[in-house]
Structure formats: structure tokens, C-alpha cells
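Lab notebook, page 48
Experiment: co-folding of the full assembly
Goal: obtain a model of how the components sit together before planning crosslinking
Operator: M.T.
Materials (sequences as entered):
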Amino acid sequence: MAPVDITIRRRPDLDGSLLGDTDPATQGGYPGHPPRMGFFTDTSVCIGCKACEVACKEWNAIPEDGLVFTGMSMDNSQGLGASTWRHVAFIEQRKPLAAQDPGVQPGGDFRWLMASDVCKHCTHAACLDVCPTGSLFRTEFGTVVVQEDICNGCGYCIPACPYGVIDQRKEDGRAWKCTLCYDRLSVGQEPACAKSCPTNSIQFGPLDELRERADARLAQLHEAGTTDAQLYGRDPNDGVGGDGAFFLLLDAPEVYGLPPDPVVTTRDLPSMWKHVAAAAVTLVGGALAAFAAERWIS
Amino acid sequence: MAECHPVGFQWVMEAKARGAKVIHVDPRFTRTSALADIHVPLRAGTDIAFLGGIVNYVLTNEKYFREYVVAYTNAGTILTEDYLDTEDLDGVFSGLDADQRAYDFRTWQYEGMEIQAASGHRDLQYQDKAGGRNGKPSRSVHHSGRGEAHGSGGAAISGTPQVDPTLQHPRCVFQVLKRHFARYTPEMVSDICGVAVDTFLQVCKLLAENSGRDRTSSFVYSVGWTQHTVGVQYIRTAAVLQQLLGNIGRPGGGIMALRGHASIQGSTDIPTLYNLLPGYIPMPHAHSNEDLDSFIEAESPKKGYWAQMRAYTVSLLKSWWGPAATPDNDFCFDYLPRLTGSHSTYETVMAQLAGDCKGYFLLGENPAVGSANTKMQRLGMANLEWLVVRDFSLIESATWWKDGPEIESGELRPEDIGTEVFFLPAAAHTEKDGSFTNTQRMLQWHHQAVEPRGDARSDLWFTFHLGRKIRERVAGSSDEMDRPILDLTWDYPTKGSIAEPEAEAVLAEINGWDADGSPLSSYEQLNEDGSTACGCWIYCGVYSDAINQAARRKPAAQQDWIAKEWGWAWPANRRILYNRASADPDGKPWSARKALVWWDEDEAKWTGHDIPDFSAAKAPDYRPPTGATGAEALAGVDPFVMQADGKSWLFVPAGLTDGPLPTHYEPQESPVPNLLYRQQRNPVRQITGMVHPHDRFEPSGGEPGTEVFPFVCSTYRIAEHHTAGGMSRFSPYLAELAPEFFCEVSPELAAERGLEHAGWATIITARAAIEARVMVTERMTPMTVAGTRVHHVGLPYHWGHRGLATGDPANELAHLSLDPNVHIQEVKVLACDIQPGRRPRGRARDALVEEYQRRAGITEQTGTEI
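Observation: model returned without errors.
Model output:
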């Protein structure tokens, strides 16, 4: 693995930056940073080979985490976790896939959806906001990385993630998740999962470019009759300010186990603090008033 | 393809993105189906009926590419009056010898001449051609098979074929073909295959519309087609169809055989097969007093490129025995081993059980899990004196003697087993240099990335040093038997601390050199006089100019679409074989869109995007003079240059053991009768077991007892694992993706048998009972076959009792009834029963199987009828 120069940057300014389309790397203190990099996972061409899962584990030296036959179609990895940073979901449905003739009897309609899930690398990342040690940090590529040698296992980040991505390893208590292969990016290589994907379902690149590509692909699918195709995490104005890793799905997000309307869990912190301040002012004011009144009465 | 060849499937996805329609024909809805435009589930074992139906559609509706068919195939060739078709004999061809379970194919000949086999049983004619005593082929020769001996075409011993270019003569191949397939109607296809007539006709239409001057269609298959008692004829049916549609020798056409492992193609080119020498030269049989001349005389034709077989063979002998090979000693032809019959993997098992085969090398193979009837595989190994296993891990084939199912049941005890087992760890491809040859005959070099760990060594290291030590052992011997070993050229340079042989030196030897030791650049340079050496004639040129051409990796963007500078394809770096057929008889491309090679009038030579597979200066109007031989004997309109008549064969007059035309037979075991003919099964299928108590067959096609095994079961691979699991079940990252053996059943079958999703089921055949976790899925679809509901039980076959991912091997269930051409097992379709719950343990497991045998009335005769 290439050595990585990880310099801890200033924490993003919490005030006023938790909503909307912002540039996370600039916010993170990288003036003149490279373009924001991310994933566009086009699930319409995923063949469910799981090469991404294996390449991720190989490159990042993640341990095997369970030899369990689940019966959930071909999915025995079950979901993202501390030791599963790419996860392929398999969904068997009694629904048509555009003009496909699935040949399945009885009934006719059938489709088998496959989708490779990953950390979303949110524009507004709650995991990073709540991390007290600086273990989680924003990189110059706009991605969110957790450092295993700094994490103290406090676990605040785990409930903070609106997608349920980041997770603690039981063995050591530390938090783990996709780094978008920060070490590979630092030396000009693409992440291991994207490199291994045979059908280009996982596309890596500058986020701006990926969004354009995704828009074109969506239009193409709609035109071809796949009307339920939709982009997920593409919108910079959604609850997390858009995802650095976004998706083209063929059904509602819930079908894939994704939250339909994720919101950065630290969104309300500023207003909460404002309310706290107001409450404090009220309290102090009340006390003063009471004191004054008492004096006045007496 | 997406399941077993996900990396290759990227090209299907790319074609799809460019507008290609993808049709997937498979009993199960797989990852491939998920991305296909049309998925056609058909009953396992009925593909000949399905493809034959398309052939009938193409012929009946005149959708064939007539100019192509007339000019480039043997459609117009007239057959002898002695030929009788399955139409005449209710499902069998003329020449059937019921006692020998074999065909004498002499009635399948062209009128007025005799044709040499294109492949398969060339040696059948040895006695006729080399002047043998009684002219009748021996049983041992007959049964040894030559299915992999591709290429060579017919020697006109006398006369030239009579051809009717109008295709009207009642005995011309075209008319015979029409009659033969006439009963494969859409309704019949629907009844046999369980495919709706509309769906079938849609496939017919799409294929026909996408073939012709301007368009081509391609077929891709894997062992789903080959692993049947009629496997070779499956591929033949596709070949007939592709010839009729004009899809051979043209860009975007062809029939792609996806191989099961990296470089399986390479291991047939430079074979690990018992019946072939490198470059598809047949292995000689143990005929008495056969010398090189009589071998060449018997095995090679007079016309086409196989006429140079003597040059290829002599150059091979020079490559192996160097200066010791001289014209005076027949270039050491006598040093070659001789066949005495079939020595395929299953006959080897029978020989082990009989005590004839005493030693066994397993290099990257796990027969205790991966071969049919795994119990017999283990019992065979238990009867050896020694066994060498080279693999990454201690696979089941290395440890069956202490923890196999027979030890668990008490049938065998380790202290009673005399086999001495040696385990030698093997190096992975990343730990060694070498080449892979893939399905389109392209060699790609891979470079060593790291040193192998511990005692792990490459196969090249093992083979070289084993040979070196044997040579040291017999050095100075005066025993004639040791001469072939002592005279071998065995002087490869080695490198590094472990003395790894230089793989590139081996490649250079395979490529060959001239008398001065300079690398050759083409097989056309090979000589008969011993002045050239070449380890594999079809690979000649891979090391031309002393450059490893297989290691070339010029990016696609820097070259044209043929990409000739990526790797190297045999022969002569041609990317599409028989590409003369991409031009019309006058040498002009059939269409601008499908142009590949063409005749350049001004330059008076063949040119184009690919390297022409044709004599460069042979004009389209060239006609051979009387008495011409070799390539000169082929006309300017004969694209199939390896065939003696230069034509592609719709009808195969010689070379196949089980018929000149494909015919639908039911598998060895089938719940339904053959609706097409009275003949239920392939009459000449090879029943290797020769009646063995552990290889009983089930009743079939409605005989009493058929109902005891009512379901069709099929074995296959899934993306998560590799073959018998030696490379995947021991790797934690792969094991966790599919950690247990499971079976796939439809919700309807689950309801019928009370199977619980993610619970357990026991699957039973006449050979074994195994258990599996249950996957109830709508991807398994019930079918209606001639009014009967047919269910499939899907069985991925990767698991054994060792490694991180475990389970019973599905191949415990399989039998040893084989394809007679290539001796492959029929594991793609068996008949079985399935019951809820786990299987019994110990002796009770065998008792369950015996009870099923009793209920079905199974005897040693069952299923052995011709």
C-alpha cells in the first residue's frame, strides 16, 4: 500500500454550511484542491458478480465477516458494515424490466435487480461532524475518511450516519467504512472496486462529470422505456447536500434498503444551539426580571 | 456467461449498449438473464430440439443465406444411396452395430468418393487406408475417440464430390437436411422443450432478421451444451444453423466456446488430452508395425492445409528429440507412446478400480468434488499405489483417505488404504510467468508479480525438475526403454534461487526455429526433412523475430478495431478463422458494413482488416488443376482451408461417432419419453461404468420406476466460486460470498414437496443422496412438457467437505454415461427426487439410496438399453 500523507485539517465551520450545494473540500480547508471525486454506480448494468466486494476487501485488508447462508437471493454479505465496504444487493421482483421478456412462469413479469452499495461520502457528513478525535476527516478530493490509528471507538459516528454505513468492529470497537481508496487516489489510481468492475457499473471520476454522465444515462433509459429508473444522491439540494457516491436505481430506494429521504443528522445542530442560546437568554432574563421584580416589590 | 465469465460478459454489455439484442436460453433465470433482452427457459437436455427447430424454420421459410450456403458449404454435395437417415430408421442412422454400440460410418460418405474425417475418428479408416488386414476398425480404436482432433478435412482417395448447385437433387445434403429436420416444428419444439410457440418463433425471427449480407449473429456456449451424452451434437446443431445463416468466417459471427478455466483452450492446443499431440495431430494407435509414413498416410488428407501434416509432425519430433531425431530413425516416431483404447478420465477411474492404473497425478484438479460420480473417483484413488496432488490447498482429493464421506460412513478405514498420497503446493498465476490461451485462440502473456511462498512451485518448475531427476536416474542406461527420456531436449535455462525454468524459453521452443536456430515466423516454413523444429505448428509465429508476440499490449485506442497488436492469436495472428467467407465468391465483401478481407484486383492479392485465412495470391477464379494436392487443390472459392473439400460441413460424412446430423435424444435419465422418435437415448452413448454397483442408472421416459425420480436436475457454477472450489472455497473473501451448498427450486416445487426456504433438502438419485440448503426462487420456472409439469432442481457443484465454504458435492449424484465422441459426463441433466430435511448419516445414507433403487426396480440392466 502506498504511504499516505494524512494531515488533519481544520474542522468545517458548523455554522451555516450544513445545507445546500457546497464544496466540501474548500469547506474542509483545502484551497486550490483537486476536483471533487466520487462514484456513480449505474445499477442498470450491474451483473452482481461481487468483484467490487472482493477487490475492496483485498485492497483494504478487511477481514472475512461471516460465513452465513442467508437465503436472501444471492446476497450473503447482507449489508454494509465495519468489514463490508461494498455490498451488492439482489432483489427478485414480480415486475417488468422495460421490454425484457424474462420467460418466467407463471405470470410473466419478473426482474432481478442488483446494486452495489457503498459509503455515500456526503457533502454534509454527520459522521465527520460528530467525531471528537479527528479520526474522521474530509480529504482534498472531498471524500470522507476514517483513520484507524486515531479512532478511539467512541461510536458517535455510527448513529450519526443517515444511511447506516459506518460501523464498529466488535473485536476492537473502532469505526470503519469505505475510504474511497484514499491511498490509491493519492497516487492517481482509481478505487479498487471501480477498477475491478467488469461492466462499468461502478464509475469513478470527478463528480461534475459523473453527474452529467448519470443525467444522460437516465434520459437514455427513460427513452428506452425503463421509466422507473431514477438517480439517488445526485441532487445537491437534498438532505445531505448530495452524495459523493450516488446511484442510478431501477426502483424506489427503499427496495434496495436505502433511506428515501436522508437528512444529515447534524442538520439541526445550529438551530438547536440557537434555541439553547435563546433559552439561556430567556432563563437569564427571567432570573434577572425576577430579581428586579423582587427588588421592585420589596 | 455473466455467472461464469463475468469479465468476458463486459463485451456482451458493450455490444448491448451498441444495440445488440441478447437472447439467453437456459433452464434457469441467471445473472445473464437479468441483463438479457429475452430469457428463454427450456427443459435441460433439449437444446438439439430447440436449435433443430430453428434450422427447420430457416429452411422452411427460406431464411438461409443462399449464396453463402451454395458457395461455401457442402449443401449441394450428393450422398451415397446407402445412406439412411433417422427419418428412415425411426431415430437411428444407417450403419448401427447394436452389439458393438457403434456406428460404421461408411454409408455416410459422399457419392463416388471417400472422405477423411474432419475431426473425431480419423483412425477408423486406418485399416482401409494403410492397407490393413480385414478393413474393420477395432473396438479399441473406435472407442478412443478423436473429438478434439479439429481441423483436418477429407482426403479424396478417388474421385471428386458430385455437387448439385441447384440444391434440388434428392440425395444432396441440403435436401437430406430438410427432410431430417422437417419434424422439428414449432409445436414439437414447444412440446419437447417446454417453450411457448410464440417465444420460440420470436427467437427464430430475431436470428433470421439479424443474419445475411449486412448483419451477423453470434452464439456463445459453455458446458451447458457439452456435458451431455449428445454434447458434441449440440454444438453441431449450432454449426449447421450458423452455416445456413452465413455467420461463419465473418465479423460478429461464429460460435464461441467459453472455456471453464483460464487457458483450457491452451491445454487442448498443447494438449493434456490423451488422444492428441500438439496442434491437434492425432496420437498414434498401437497398430502393429506402424511407421511415420503409414501414420501420415492414414491420418492426413491430400488436400487443404492438413496435407502438410508430415512437416508439422516431423518438426514436432525434432523439437522434442533434437539431434537424436534423424531421417534414418523416422525422426524418433517410435518414441511416441501409443494408444490402446480410450484413456479418458473416466476410463482411468475404471482402470484404477480394476487395479490396472497404479499411479495418478492431479495437477489443479479436484475429482473428489468436480468429476461425475465422486464416490467412484475416491474409490479409484483408494485403489492406487501412489497419488500426487498439486494444488493451492489441501483439497478433498488430497485428504479423502482420512476425512472423506467413505471414512465418515465407515465404508473405508484409513489404515486399510494403501495409496501413498503426496501433496505438493502449487504456485498461482501471479507467482509465475506464462501464457493464457483464451477462447478466440488468443495467447496473452502474464508476468510473475511475486515469488511463490514456501514450497509452492509452478507446474513448469515441477515438470522440468521431475524430468531432470528422472533423466539423472536413468543416465547411462543402455535399456532401449529409456532412450526416449534420455534423448529428450531438456535443457531449459533456469533463473532465481528456486531454479525456475524460463517460461519464455519454452515459448521459443513451441514457436520453433530453422536449421540455424533462428525463430520461425509461420507454419508455412515448416519442412518435412527435419530442417525445422516446432513444438506446436499452430503456435508457430508467436515468437517471430525473437519477440514474445503474446506479451504485446498496445491499447485499443492506438490501433484499429481488429487490434492485431494485442496478444497473438493462432494461427498466424488471425483473429477470425476462415475469413475468406467474409467475401463473396468473387472476392468482394458481402456488404460494406461487414467487410473483413477481400480480393484486391490491382495488387492481385487478398487484403483487408484481418490477416486473410487464405493463400494470399490465390485469385477467386482459381481452379485447381487435376491431381493437385495440399493448399493448391483448393479453389479460389473454398474458404474452409482445413477441409479437404474446402467447404463447411452441414453434413459430416466422417469423424463423428454418433451420426452425420444432430438428432434430439433424451438424456440418459429423463422423466419424459422422446417425442420425436422411438429411439429414446443416443444409441451409441458411452456407458463407461460397464455395469458398476456404484453407477446404477434410473428408469426413463415413462418406464416403470420413472416416477421415483420425477424431477430434472442440473449442475452448474455460480459467480462466487470456481469449479470444484480449490481456488475459491479456501479463500475467505470468496467463501463468505456463498458459504454453503444450496439447491434452487421453484415456489411450486417447494410447495409440492414441503421444502422450506433456507431450510434443508435431501436430493436423491440412483447413485447417492446429498443434502443442501434450500433456495426457493421464482428464477426457477416450472415447465409444461407435452402436457406434463416438469420441475428442475438447480445444483451449483462447487462444494465439498473441506475449506471455509462447505457442503455435499452435487457430483455425488452423477453417473458415468458419456458423450461417445469426447467422453464427457452428462452432469447438465439428471433425474432426481427431492425431499425436505437433512440426509441420513453413516450407513443409513446408503440404505436410503438402496431403498430408492428398490422402489424404482433398478437392476444392473436398467438404462443400459441401446
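Interpretation: The two ends of chain B are 35 Å apart (CA to CA).
Next step: discuss with group before ordering constructs.
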